[in-house]
Queue: 4 jobs
Job 1
Amino acid sequence: MNAEEILKNKTVLYVEDDETTVKFMKKIIGKYVKEVLVAYNGKEGLNTYLETKPDITITDIEMPEMNGIEMIDKIREIEANQAIVILTAFEDEAIKNSTKVSAILVKPIEKEKLKKVLLDCI
Amino acid sequence: MILAVLITIVVVLFFELILYFFLKNKYFSYKNEVNQMWAEIFEKHDGVMLLIDPDQNGLILKANIAASKYYGYSLKELYTMSIKDINCLAPEDVQNEMNQAKEESRNYFNFKHRLKNGNIRDVEVHSTPLQTQGKKRILFSIIHDITDKNLFKDLIKKKNEELKKINESLETRIQEATKTIKVQERQLAQKEKSRALSELLFNISHHWRQPLNNIYLASQDVGDLIEENDLNINEIMENQKLIQKEAKELSHTITKINQFYNESYVYLKKEFVNIQEVIKQIILDDQNIELDFYSNTSSRIFTNKNVIRQVFQELIFNSLHAQKTNTKSTLKIKLSLSKEGEQIVIEFEDNSGGIKDENIDRIFEPYFRIGYKGKNKGLGLYLIKNLIVNFLDGNITVKNTLDGLKTTIRIPK
């Protein structure tokens, strides 16, 4: 099995508060993985993570209730090796937290770049 | 007997005669003394005095020691001279001066007298016409040297003129300095403005990424659909609509920013603004708004009208918007104005239900979305705070009340 086929069997949790962004990203990520789970803020994301234990977590930073960074810290407490990717418009904020995550993607995102990062995560 | 009487009479008369002559002599010697003293006063007085015969071409009849000393001629010389040898003015000028003195009802003339050494002095001549017993006209003149006085006068005049010039140049310098300060103030205002704008630009560019990202994603999706030959018209149309909607919102933001930062803010003209009137103009005759106004100070404040109008337009717009979503009653606005030390405090209170406590600290952030997933992208409060802080040196705060929101604006008097 090549890497792309392995990726096809993985589940991804996508945490993002903007519905339009979610709609398109779910479709794009969905092309490469088995399933995309969606949460609309950090708190929801953490709950979904605990329930489903996805292979890869992709999250935005600025969100209501609980922001992405807080959520990442909570996940790291549970699973230190969890693959986490930040997908944000605010590169500066993401870079400050680069040590906590596997990769940083900046919006708007190209499909090829996303695919490469996802492959690196497995 | 008769002889005895006669002798007595003769003796008495004789004694009376002696008495008469004795007293007469005594009387005359007293009169002589006074006359002599009078002459001595004339002679020895410090003031320069002359007796002049106007009928003998101004011949000097008498001069005192002071005159001799003053003019430098001996008395002998003086008695051969005419006043015309001393007075430098031409006869017609002398006449003119006399006429002028009469006009100004002065009891002296201003002449120029030449001394023996050739010096010419300014003098004031006090002349009194006298008459001898033989009805001969004589002019008695007392001469004051006023050259030094005149020099002093001229000096004062000159100094005054100098002072005036200094004052004028000082005024020019002050005007120039004021001009420079005004230019600097304007530059500062512009600097302030560009600082505020760059901050605004930073915040906006930050938040524009999200809609731009969505536009990017939607167009990428169209590309994918075409690539995969999945020509679902509905999906493509949906994407097209989304792109239009997001682009429209971005354009709307630019319009709004332009509105807030138009040219009239650059030179921040301040004037007396009646806040109540400004608000009345905004709400016009909207039947759904009630306005109560309280003030313990003048309702006119010295500030920038454009900024004030913009601020209240935004506050009223927000109140109306909140009123429509939160309650259904009439919008009641309580406006109050007061003075607190060096500040004017404007309170704007509505009955529109207020803001969730957890959001209240963030409502001045640009694009803060009220409520989860809410699309209320408020730029207005951010912009008005920006105006109040950067252009009026004031501040704005909000607080929930029982049934609404109270906005407090403080600006310096």
Job 2
Amino acid sequence: MRLLGGLLLLIPVVTGLLGPLVAGSTASTAAPSMPPGDGHPLGTDQLGRDVLAVVLDGGTTVLWMTAGALVFAYAAGFPLGLFTATQRFRRLGGTVLRLLDVVLAFPGLLVLMVLAAAGRRDPATLVLVAGMLQLPAVTRIVRAAALAPNHRAVVEALHLQGLPWWRIHIGYIGRSALGPILTDMGTRVGILLTLLASANFLGLGLPADSPDWAVLIERNNQALLTQPFAVFVPAVLLALLCIGANLSVDRALGRLR
Amino acid sequence: MWRYAAVRTGVAFGQTALVLVAAFGMTALLPGDAAASIAGESATRGQVAALRSRLGLDQPLPQRFWEWLTRLCHGDLGDSVITGVPVGSELGDRFAGSAILAAATIAVLLPLALATGVSCGLHEHTRLDRTLNTITVGLHAVPEFVLGLLLIAVFSVAAGWLPATAAGMSGPALLGHPAVLVLPVTVLLGRQLCELARQLRVGVAANARGPVARHLRLLGVGEGTVLARHVLPAAMPPVLQQFARTVEGLLCGTVIVESLFAMHGLGTGFVEAVRNRDIPSVQGYVLVFAGTIVVLNLLGDLLAYRFSPRGERGFA
């Protein structure tokens, strides 16, 4: 039970990271949507590609997109949160928070859909927007975590020593707020995984011939009856990835409390 | 209470104003041209231009915003530029579909969340608590389309017990075919159960251990009464906030489930409207989504305020 999350996570992550190294050719050479048979242990997909090779190849995209969105959300949200927590810019910080709350009011997928309709349909935009959608929550968490150390005597002493703003805030306050921030990063991985996979399923990010698991599921959905493996295998891997990530974070949080 | 309600409602009006601007702002975001999209690819430039002026697309943005607002005040959302049907009636139709799905989910969700949350909260850190927690977190984690497809594969394709699609059924028709609702409701339940049960668990656990409950037990009040009359109401404020978020998710965040099961609801309607560059419809949908969120948050805050102990009422 204790290691369940980690074990579940291991399978898709190893597949995603090492899969491309051992995957065979993903050229479309065979007939489309064939059940398992000669040379294709899991059959072929709707483009006539070997399902095993495509699945081994397709785990990387979801991993790097999630990582990218998380890095972007924090690269923007961390300084913004520290800024809104500073005593000196209190008024301005409040306004920033109110504005960010408006972003929070729109369901993430709907925003992605409008952008896709506006012709912005590429993985980089998807990652940026998914990260941006996390900005209100990240800013609030960082702000809340930084408010308490902000009022300590240490900070006053550092001010009196004449240290520059960024040294105090990033060096001291940022460091002492690290606990809640790491916790939030964990939960956000789960949120981003679901959001990005759903967006790819709706065709809002990666191209239709990408080996990405979510794209595979969507494309082969029609042939569920004749070639279930092309849907089943990526679906189970994606489910394992999401469940494993969430359970591991949940367990780690339980230990922290 | 009334003072808080008045201020909070004022905030909601402010948010509504922002929503109106945002809903109209979507027009500027969609560079598309409804005119080009209606006229088709074979249309000449002149035809498109004529269509643009007929639709009023050639006027400056502020003027269009003003005209849209005045019509909105008369309850007129305009007509769909694709089908010509009034946006209002299309929205009502779609809303009925989504509302039926949401109501069916809530009818199952509430007792289930109550049972899970209370039993976990009363038996904190036991094997039961850990097992239920693992299951709900796991269900919550699986993306809806993955869970939905796996369920379809098992229960519709392999076993043949349940229909895999609600294609061609509008809102009220769903009521005549409850079997259609089983799989979509299950997927939505998996998504929503975790957070609601978790809030209940934390609240029940904290209050069941608290001094009030201990005192009542010493007075000889039965365990059932302590739970129902004191522990649960005290645990309510965060649960109500979370419930507002749940209803919001069920009305505005069901795009995936609706498109997976081909249901006639707000989510699929929005997808179609965006794809067709049907700007009046897109504006209508954004208004409904954002308006629902504003209203539900208002209700959630007011109820949470009503349930919180007098001493802890902040002005947030």
Job 3
Amino acid sequence: MADVPVAPLSEKDAPKTFGERGASVPFTTAALMWARVRQRADIKELLVPGLANTRGIYVFEWVGIPTRFTLTLHDRLLHRAIAPEPAPTPTMIARIANRIALSGAAGPDVQAAAERRLKQAEDLALLARYTLTMRMIERTSGDGARTTVAELRTAPGQQRAKQLLSRIAARYNIPAQALQGRIDALGASLAEVGMPGMPTKAPVRLQLQQMGQMSRVLREWADEGKGESIVEARLISQVAEETCRLAEPLLAVVDDTTLDIDPLLRDWTSAERGLTAAVQRLAWILDGWDRLANMWVDVADKSATDQSNTLALMSYLLPMIPANELRPEEAAKWGELSKILYTQARNSETPPTGLFDLEMMLRLEGHRAREAS
Amino acid sequence: MTAVPVGSAAAPADVAAETAARAKALDDAKLQQIVSLLEAALERPDGATAKSMLDQLRPKLVEARPPRRINLRRLLCEPFEDMLVNGVTSGHLVGRIPRSAIMPVWDLFIERGNRQIIDRAQANPADKAAVAAALDNFVTVMKTELAEASAFATKGRSLLLRLGGETLGETHYLALEVMVSAVSIARQIAHLKSALPPKPIREFKDAHLNELAETLNQILKIAPDRISTALFVVMARMAEPWKIATVLETLAMTGRFKSSAGINEFSSAALVGRLETQVQAVQAFADKPPPGAGEGPASSGAAAASLAADAGSAIESLAGTREALEKAGSKAQLREVERARQRLREVVDAKIVDGAASAIVGAVARSGPAAAPLSSRPDSATLRNAELRAVALKRSSAYAGLLTLEGDVAENLRRATEGVEKAASELFGQIRRGRLQGAARDAARAHVMGNARLMEILAGPEKAEQLLMRGLEAMGEPLTAF
């Protein structure tokens, strides 16, 4: 397949589904800092926005990337690791990227961050399992039985929890082993999103909070006319706000389903399907925002000119929600935002060159280390 | 059931990291509440703890920007805030105010100023008239202090002592003069700030030049000796302050504002002063022992990498200043610029270039299997230090020409690259002979990657990939092993 430049991108050409939009890839090569990967039939494609100083998205066949760009060592490994995988999703890309980061290819700081992230994921899965277990015990034990985290760290505490779970399993005609398996699987799937009552705020909730704060800060920035990129600041603020709004009902699905434990235990398969769908959709909706937030944090204490340039660049790469992923009542609002985006014709002042850029590589590695701090 | 961790999922290593992690999770309402409490505590005598907590919260504050308390001291500093510099205590103070001068000057104002006027403004910092009256009072009181100090030697000594004693008194005295000058034209400075583009100003459009000329003419009428102060503010807001001479020339040629020769001299002196500030900051940074010196081997590399970035900004400023002064400066000023260049050259040579190759190659050897068994992973701190030294060296290559260091930088880069290459070859030989399994294999892979990463910084990703492939080949693994 030949490389297909689609420039300039119009609303008409915009991706219609999350799959078409592709999953963002944490490359450290300057030109690919906003790139996404998607699957078309049996080939993978790399989508690169912002090249050649246009609003277009260039599409390259995945296998040919190393001949098109001077990739960093980390990206050469990442490229090879993604190639044989099935259709990419944000969760899959995050998993592969963390594996490559663990190798040290992006330096010791990113490696240490990847180790922290792995540990955090294990801890969060454990906390999610604990929260689910406790909720079941509390709701289904008439005697108001409770087990604390500290108790669960002891052998008698674990034994007691097992006994209580066995009683619950019997009440719902589920084998005790199967109930434990279900809790473990659900805990792992809910770790990133978290649920009410978990002692630690999960990454997805932290990201939404950060997006909310960024939305407010950029709205104030635009209202106060702090720099030239007022339209961009307002647009990014609105898109962040609307994205958070889209995430709310999905979080509500997670919260309601895990709070109301009886229906979950009665119809586990369907409830679990709903939860998994909500978690996956949240991952797609938020995909790409961590890098945008990092870009803003990089310039949050810099001059208005630096902020304006960054905002212009950020506006190019806004993760807009594809039309087919929206409900009719949401489509109008997003349609308006798309119109503003595609009529903004300002050029980025920092066009990537495609050459090896040590400073940008270090900056992008800094983002990876920061995300896991 | 597996054991569950107590408390936070993350286990921050120290208090600062823990504060940062906690701050990250704060929502807007909680953050605002905390900041408001801490800012109120700042004004108390035991405000140091609040200040240190606010410092720890700073990354979160920069990102989330909760509304800050307005207070009279902050409003008083607004006219000269662009001229504030950190930690400068000597040298050319033209157009610069050390931040350390604020508190002694403020305390003096609180003591000698009109209590009623100050209290009214402090109680209502949003009341523009009350604040304007307090600022006027500041100018009146401080002008008297300065006049008496210059007329009577005893008063002068007493003021110097009051402002900072033997070490800082004179610097703060000069700073007070600039402060008074700026506060006396606070309205005009505020107007300039709102009428000109946000800083750093890269270009003055015609409308901006009109605004600038109008304000300067206004100041010329009411206080002609304050023109230089207004220009210092404008220069401090420019991306390339050395272009101030061109701006003044344009204003003069179009008849909008005619500056005197003295003004040009002032602006040239300010440029030299600004350059000196940057060079002093670079020198001070270079002389400072790295945090945790002697504890973490990565600290010296981190210092070198930061120094290389700071030196880059100072050198950019040096090039611009030299160009401007070649047209409009004096020979003496050009000699000062040359001295600044020499000082930068010495710092960059001593702290970044000289011995860089040996440090990098030495670190590779220390973290490698020659120093420890191949079955143990490389020491990550030592490797990080080598990486940062390499980053510093690469950064310095961008401006080595201006410092006449290009030969030394190139030579160090060549020696470092060859050294890493040689260390890698020895490592691969050991791997081949070792027939490694399990954990030893993982450790060897980490050694290979460490070398490849270093090679990427020194010579680019192409060479790094070649080295990585050779390492994996020695291990009998494909490139998809990661």
Job 4
Amino acid sequence: MFEIFTVIADWLAYGMLGLEPASRLGAAVHFFIEDTTKIFALLVVMIYVIAMARASLDLERVRAYLHKRHRLAGYFFGSGFGAVTPFCSCSSIPLFLGFTSAGIPLGITMAFLLTSPVINEVAVVMLWGLLGWKFTLAYVAIGMAVGIIGGMLLDAMRAHRWLQDFAAKAYQQAQAAAPQGSDDSGEPVPAKRLTLGDRHAFARDELKEIVGRIWKWIFIGVGLGAGLHGFVPEGWFAANLGAGQWWSVPAAVVAGLPLYSNATGVIPVLESLIGKGLPVGTTLAFCMSTVAASLPEFTLLKQVMQWRLLATVFLILLINFTIMGWVFNGIAPWLSIGGA
Amino acid sequence: MMKIEVLGTGCKKCVNTAEQISEAAESLHVEAEVEKVTDPAVIMRYGVMATPAVAIDGKLVHSGSVPDRETIEGWLRG
């Protein structure tokens, strides 16, 4: 089904531009054309379809649903809703406070917030198209695991002590009134009733909004990926940063930290890295570190968290990414994913 | 005189919302004071979970997106 994009790229790069398939420039240009056409086509279709489906999802209902769950299930559902809910980093503060002031445990809220930027339809569609379904599943599993484990650890440490005062007070009052797991979560929230026309309007706006926001990231990401693809020698990563070198995973996490990108920009680069023999766990660790642990977003959270809590969350993320990277390097042969 | 608060922690959409409201008020000749609220404690008190949100004279009327022109004019006409 995706061969059409290879044909288009063959035709443009080798036919129209007259580039040599064996040359570096030819390989890079071919990669760039194939990936940009494929990604844009997939995105337009998928964003529209998914937006149609989730037009009726709203945060009030998610919150009421989470509130009724048993604590343990709450981490899982928190992370799951984080994955399917559209999310803009500028909404993280009100969302955090909305959950906290309803008495939802900090760990469940954080499971939501940690998973949300990592897993979204754009990331899943791109991974699927560029790296196949096994890698996509691995990515989703890690993204959710990091959120769930991170949330559990934070609650185990009773991290809500380190919220900013006004948030901590709101949390305690709500906890006293209706603890997690109780059915008493106030007024039931009715589902929105939407016609097909409403859904279409919502999906069209979403499509415009998302593509308008990410198109430049796709060009940057695919451009970088194409450069790597054409100009880094085959097997260079395997030889220098292979799975044998245990330190390559924490090194990848640290290297990803100052790089602030969203999932859209980094996935085309992953495709090239794996193609050149970088182990799959190392690549995933690098990706998560780039996408999830971004300093600008963390500084935003300072408004509701004390430094101590911020630093704890950050540390948990880094340790999680590293462990996940090792685990996936270990099981990669068994999953038969990656370049090797 | 209407007091219109735009709630949001300072993203582009919130600035955009405030500008749209000011423009609409001017073109309709409605006297309105448009204020951007970024204090998270105030936003929490309104119970808003998605920004930008809009409150008129202390009452929440909108949240989660940049409101369209028709909606804004509806508020301003009262």
